[in-house]
Amino acid sequence: VEDGDKVTGESLDALLAELTRVNNSRERASLLFQWLIRPVPAKAFFSETWEKKPVFVPRKNPDYYKGLFSTAEFDRILREENVQYGVNLDITSYVNGKRETHNPPGRALPFTVWDFYESGCSVRLLNPQAFCSTVWNVLSILQEQFGSMAGANVYLTPPGTQGFAPHYDDIEAFVVQLEGKKHWRVYNPRSEEEVLPVLSSPNFDQAEIGKPILDVVLEAGDLLYFPRGFIHQGNCLPDAHSLHITISSYQKNSWGDLLQKVIPAALGVAMEEDVAFRRGLPLDYLTYMGVQNSDKEDPRRAKFLSRIESLMKKLPNYAPVDAAVDQKAKEVLHDCLPPVLTPNELATSVQGAATRWADGTVKDVGVLITTKTQIKIIRAMCARLCSDGDAVHICYTTDNSRVYHKEELQSFEIQTEHTDAVEFLIHSYPKFVTVESLPCDSVQDKIALAELLFEKGIIHTAEPLKSPPTVHSH
Amino acid sequence: VEDGDKVTGESLDALLAELTRVNNSRERASLLFQWLIRPVPAKAFFSETWEKKPVFVPRKNPDYYKGLFSTAEFDRILREENVQYGVNLDITSYVNGKRETHNPPGRALPFTVWDFYESGCSVRLLNPQAFCSTVWNVLSILQEQFGSMAGANVYLTPPGTQGFAPHYDDIEAFVVQLEGKKHWRVYNPRSEEEVLPVLSSPNFDQAEIGKPILDVVLEAGDLLYFPRGFIHQGNCLPDAHSLHITISSYQKNSWGDLLQKVIPAALGVAMEEDVAFRRGLPLDYLTYMGVQNSDKEDPRRAKFLSRIESLMKKLPNYAPVDAAVDQKAKEVLHDCLPPVLTPNELATSVQGAATRWADGTVKDVGVLITTKTQIKIIRAMCARLCSDGDAVHICYTTDNSRVYHKEELQSFEIQTEHTDAVEFLIHSYPKFVTVESLPCDSVQDKIALAELLFEKGIIHTAEPLKSPPTVHSH
Amino acid sequence: VEDGDKVTGESLDALLAELTRVNNSRERASLLFQWLIRPVPAKAFFSETWEKKPVFVPRKNPDYYKGLFSTAEFDRILREENVQYGVNLDITSYVNGKRETHNPPGRALPFTVWDFYESGCSVRLLNPQAFCSTVWNVLSILQEQFGSMAGANVYLTPPGTQGFAPHYDDIEAFVVQLEGKKHWRVYNPRSEEEVLPVLSSPNFDQAEIGKPILDVVLEAGDLLYFPRGFIHQGNCLPDAHSLHITISSYQKNSWGDLLQKVIPAALGVAMEEDVAFRRGLPLDYLTYMGVQNSDKEDPRRAKFLSRIESLMKKLPNYAPVDAAVDQKAKEVLHDCLPPVLTPNELATSVQGAATRWADGTVKDVGVLITTKTQIKIIRAMCARLCSDGDAVHICYTTDNSRVYHKEELQSFEIQTEHTDAVEFLIHSYPKFVTVESLPCDSVQDKIALAELLFEKGIIHTAEPLKSPPTVHSH
Amino acid sequence: VEDGDKVTGESLDALLAELTRVNNSRERASLLFQWLIRPVPAKAFFSETWEKKPVFVPRKNPDYYKGLFSTAEFDRILREENVQYGVNLDITSYVNGKRETHNPPGRALPFTVWDFYESGCSVRLLNPQAFCSTVWNVLSILQEQFGSMAGANVYLTPPGTQGFAPHYDDIEAFVVQLEGKKHWRVYNPRSEEEVLPVLSSPNFDQAEIGKPILDVVLEAGDLLYFPRGFIHQGNCLPDAHSLHITISSYQKNSWGDLLQKVIPAALGVAMEEDVAFRRGLPLDYLTYMGVQNSDKEDPRRAKFLSRIESLMKKLPNYAPVDAAVDQKAKEVLHDCLPPVLTPNELATSVQGAATRWADGTVKDVGVLITTKTQIKIIRAMCARLCSDGDAVHICYTTDNSRVYHKEELQSFEIQTEHTDAVEFLIHSYPKFVTVESLPCDSVQDKIALAELLFEKGIIHTAEPLKSPPTVHSH
Prior knowledge:
Largest sheet of chain A: 10 strands, antiparallel
Number of helices of chain A: 12
Low-confidence stretches of chain A: 1-7
Structural class of chain A: alpha+beta
Order of helices and strands of chain A: HHHEHEEHEHEEEEEEHHHHEEEEEEHEHE
Strand content of chain A: 15-25%
Oligomer: homotetramer
Distance between the termini of chain A: 53 Å
Radius of gyration of chain A: 27 Å
Mean pLDDT of chain A: 94
């Protein structure tokens, strides 16, 4: 499946067009990711490079990423969209070791933004996916490769300047050079504690960061990847401006982040199920435990610590890992972009259904979902069954906003008798199944469930829905 | 100025095009309002009808309001915009005297909306100005006629149905019939207390409202106006659906609403300036005043009441009316729609300034505002000086959102030495004035103020700004 | 009634004992206040001095106020009560024109308080009524003289020091010298605006306050009164410490404070009843009103201002003065101290009812209130009927705390059929009336109401209640 | 130490007097606890009964607990203290299987409380330690036996009635019969999950609870103990009322409660120190983990679960147990009652220091703490060093309130150079040590620390402090 040869778009536009014919969103993601890092094979990348070390991919092909984003598109966005200083866009500079932000209040229009640029400031556009459909499309596809939100920022830097101080981030970064060129230096994490760090660093002085392990000039079409924790800085050479987009993922997506869900839940279960966790503490433990007693030689300390250890060691037995993964999954689904539908998906889903107003009346109302209708979920990752104790809910991304967390995660309760059918649907992906094949008790149930999922935009049909044979209702 | 003949657009589109050539936004407002109520003369309307009684304007011209809104536009909005049930759109019915709302959660797509419609429900689209540019344009012009926000809702009703129970509203209503026809009945306020009421009514039973004073059928191109407090109900005849837009204004815009700002401020000033307000109450007033003593015959009561009355009668002397009007004005400016710029306004304002990215670099940066540049505020009502004690601020509507109160009212402080110049600019409207003519202390001040107002979108120039003669900066 | 000769207590203790035999709490208040300012006649004081000018009452009788408070009592309080620095007590100094506060955190015990004192700091005990029963008793009596809360602070100053900078307060102040002596200087308000001011002043420099109009030395037994707004400062002479208590009243108790309740209510009524207040503002008022137009010569301004004035002049017609007084009264009742019951009041009220546990069982339970029982409210000001729209409530002070606002004001709803009876009871004060005489519909109602009021501590009976003739219940 | 013979008070009063001569508060606690459960030996009790099973201790000595509490004391409290229905006192009944609460609003005076009692209601007084000094003293001593807050409620029940439905509690309960007698039935936990439960149960029906394992009549002087989770109910026989006090402890004091502090802290440390916790989750884990995949046979599931388990098993290595115990200890100290000082403790601590006002001046100010002064902390459990990251604080109970959580836990920062000295002091308990012996850098430091701890009431001295030789300061 991960055969980069299958999809050989001469350009991003062509590639994205080809991808609309790939039925499995995970395969689409894999192909698009392969394009991003080509010629590095994805498999090798994930086993040898990802989370381990930086890699520089020069291409000598300035058009490789063409169509993804451009300064012309940037100018259009400033003109047509409500871009706010400090919210969507930052004006920055790094001169003589001093990093500054220059955002005025209010809307960022070309008149002022380009004036800042001309005076040597860098411009960072946050979350361009909210303004640019191609970036939205690319990121919404890639997030299924990562199983985690894919984000982006765009950086425009005038010739001969630098906009940011050296620092490291808390995300895996793919620096995609779009226009011009930029000189990049990448440095090793400074200590074991800063390998794959939980939080981004402050700005560093040049004296704090040692020598670069990578010192390259990216030109349009080139790629630079580095894991979180690797310090980096980029500056423009005197002869060219630079425009790049940084695609990022894996923020707060570590085993520890998952354990923050697993462990308190495990302790809750253990306290319910195992009386050893409910027994009282020793009457006198405060007299030999605690920081003020930590230097005491007291055999009770060892016994106490050993009891704590043995209880902690029992915890995995009570860990509700799947439920904790669902808690994490709900956060991931909330973070994710809504899918960009292909024309065919649009024609076969609620968003593009034929039902419409025309000639003074409504047309194609009451279209029929029948037992023969073939359905599938619209993306592998667009919906998920999540159980929180009693009720089972289906969470879904199709009503998410392009603006990060602008909407709450949408979900609705699934009746117990429908959970098997929803699970069947999700596991059948990417195959279409007939409504008839849903494991529900009755035909009415099957159709009701299919209609519900269709109306929420979670499923689409193999063929556009047809309206029933006309027997004039009015 | 209110000469309806000057502007005789064959259609709304033509009228709006002609209005772009009217330099004064108040005049534009007046002409557009005249078109709305034609052939009733505006002057007569405001002296005889406004806030007094309903009026029906039949036209026998189904295309009169063409272009303002249509069900086809409605269908487009549902398809392309994120319309949410319960937030932007309501599904309602009124059957056998029972009024119901049927909103499901989530996005309102044609697939479900038209299904509700087909089953006999009415559809109300709230604030169509957020989705439809023509409605936005019309309302943003009309608000300068009313000196108060102009709002709108759209109502689509299937043949043979009624969507709402009889009720009265708290706004002046212009019912503009766009498609089909609708049977309307209007009733007098039920009592003196319900004349020009402060709040809307609940739904009434048919038995509570008496006999209609107006019983008409609106056809496309007709208009019906009624003041707040007049009960009304509309239903579709069996043979036609109805689409109308209700344009509204004057919500909470009464003398009493202004007095709610004036009077507490007046008391504050009185307590500062007049010791009579600071003197202590009588030692024993609690023994003869209050509800439990209201039936007492005690000469001290009369004396106490007379003292209260005399203090209240002194209050007008301390009333800071202009400051209170400014408080009210700030609310009005916050309520208002941002202006829709004409092509010429766009070319001469910050929003459409020539500064841009082209051919790998920025163009027309640092355009010159000089002492000779001619400027004016972009709308009569787009900006206002407001003083709250020490500082003077300029409040402005150009950064408002099309979505009601989505943004805070924008404002910034004006240095004392610039207030005269801003006042001069505002009072010069609709005339252009040179930057030189601004009453500031220095040329630098004049240009700095003009640049600031230009960057905020408050002023535009008589001619598009030109970039300075090129002496390469980098 | 205000005959100081009737009550001639040789000491405060004797006076308070005599006052327990005065049946009317207002008369008690009047007699105690007369004692406070003797030999100035109260009537003359309130007509010539109160809120007008300071007065110094020297007495050459160091024991005149004996028993009210003492430093020995202060020492007891520090020892036995939980006095907290910064909450109940402040340590201050004023040296070389610099005013400082030296409160450490935590409880104020004699060990540290007297150390501060010995090093030259002044000590202020806030609200001594919470700790000292005599002060509580005196203030709870005096508040009925003022019809407003009476408060107090105690000040102890070491010889040769001053604890506070010159300033003025927002209350009428009675400085009662208890021990030692203190040099006081009082200055006129600095301007008309500072006569009877709404708020206390900041600390003044000596240069800001002019020359004193009163320069005296208070010795134990002397009194100094000055109205709010009169600047004052006191310092100890080298040869003696000073202890004084300042009794205060009339904070926020001016006509203006009452008008803050009256006027918004009046506008609310006017908007409901008078359509003139509901009519819309002129379409164009924003173009000629407001600060930016205040210099305009426009005949519409005069017309607008005249309309505002005429509406304001109508407001007194709609002013619900009694209801507003009740709003103010509720605040006063909430501020007030609960009454200190005399032994006789205790024996005849719920607080001291004979019902008790003795010898392994309850005694005197189910005591009888009959139609013949004679009742009266326990203080003139302890309860009040207040109406807020629909329901009528009785508010009462008997559950207030000695600590200011520690409890919410207590109240309960009075059924409509009982309001006349409560009003009758309140107006009958200080006479006892029989339960039979209450204007209720039935005997049951009369007794139920009397029982309710008795249980809340609002009324007491002429004789201690007797238990019913014993027919053993168990 | 746990020798009940050493202390053989004929009565509680005598015992408490004897305990004032025991220098170690832990020994006091042990002796008082032994008295509580005599003749059961404490050691045997804690090894065989505590948290395991109920025990009934009949004594045939109605005066055994005399002086602890009585209905006469109850009556006094109602009369003299502000006891509020619903806050401090509940009126309850259990008739025909129906449990009801009858609290009116407001203050609970004997007049109404005894009326409820006479009509067959039970009366529960919550936290009598806030009103009764003996209960406060007893509980404040016992809490050092439990290393956890000791609480209490008092229950008064009329003859022939029952006040509560069968239920179990979340605390270890010592039912101390004070007057009359009561019939008690105790039942086993209904299931393994209800053994030592985390939360109290709802009220049970008689049918839900099985057969009692204990069915006894407590008479005055008897004791009944049962662990949390044991269902119980008590009712009065027709011939006698009952008064008992339930002394409780060990609420939320289990190993699991401590682990709730340990485990999140351990995960935090692990994420900082061990990169294995910071590595990213597998790209595809959402496709095989989570409830919707829990039935999947996928080898990746086992691998994933095994990784979770191995990480969890590493957690004990990172568990900051002492710091977590300190977090728990801070809660315990906040829960605890302040100590009741003995006369000797009072005379040698800040609370009873000789510093005072007498004869018009302050006496014994500036008493000397010298290097020779002998000091000790006033209770074993009254203070504790707690470290939260950077700073070390001392937390202490001496400023706690008798009312549960009325005050925040008091604490102050200890300078690093003083922590050893504080630890030395705490560990020296119950021995006095000289100020000189404190391990501080300088004599000034030693004295400054001692003064600070003395002023906070944390330490007392072997002898009452003496004032310095008088050299008149003023």
